[in-house]
Design a protein that fits this description.
- By secondary structure, the protein is α+β, with helices and mostly antiparallel strands.
- It has 3 domains: about 5-55, RNA-binding S4 domain (Structural Genomics Hypothetical 15.5 Kd Protein In mrcA-pckA Intergenic Region, Chain A, Roll), CATH 3.10.290; about 60-125 and about 215-240, Pseudouridine synthase I, catalytic domain, N-terminal subdomain (Alpha-Beta Plaits, 2-Layer Sandwich), CATH 3.30.70.580; about 130-210, 2-Layer Sandwich (Alpha-Beta Plaits).
- It is built from 7 helices and 13 strands.
- α1 (about 5-10) packs across α2.
- Bound molecules: uracil.
- Uracil binds near residues 103, 191, 192 and 205.
- GO terms for molecular function: RNA binding; rRNA pseudouridine synthase activity.
Amino acid sequence: MRLDKFLVACGIGSRTEVKKILKSGRVTVNQLVEKSAKVHIDEIKDQIAYQGEPVRYEKFVYYLLNKPKGVISATEDSKHRTVLDLLDATARQKEVFPVGRLDIDTHGLLLLTNNGALAHEMLSPKKHVEKLYQAEVAGIMTQEDSSRFAQGIELKDFTCQPADLEIVEVDDSTQMSRVQIRIAEGKFHQVKRMVAACGKEVTDLQRVRMGPLVLDEGLDVGDYRRLNARELELLAIFGVEL
Ligand code: URA
């Protein structure tokens, strides 16, 4: 692998930044200063250091994004900005992709990674990974709706698995409700369709949890950060190389 590509992949900086860093003589390959971006290194055998600190190659990266409304959970789109447009060059260089989809007008937790095996496990219907949503609804949601959710709502093309609807607040004067919905499936527009089946409409939808990952309240809308060591430990339940 080219040295500049390796350093970008390790999160040292963007390609342009890495070129400058190399020119300044702060990178060594096997204890010798290396200024050429083009030189090829063996990322396993060679010892690369930046400012005297060893640089390690990361095969997989994991980002927790607080997705804003108005961006698409895809890697490319001809019309709209995608979640990848929110990431810096280092993250994009690792070729991450979103684990599952949120609608363009849904906000909240989205995991981005280049670990295909993990994504496969987290999205597998057999794994029943639980997702928690907070929704604002036009209309008053009732205990009867909760019972329907618990029994499994019948939609036109499929019957949903039993799901949990918790009514957080209802406002009779505005005819609005705030609810929490927990589902272990991830069909297209599922939450909106389940609420619509009860004769009401989701006006705001936020995902706050996916499996063991919880939306970080310190993360502003549109911001992202790497998963921390604790979160990575939690992902071990999926039994794939992390
Ligand atoms: N359910 C929906 O209807 N939309 C989402 O974005 C996620 C779940």
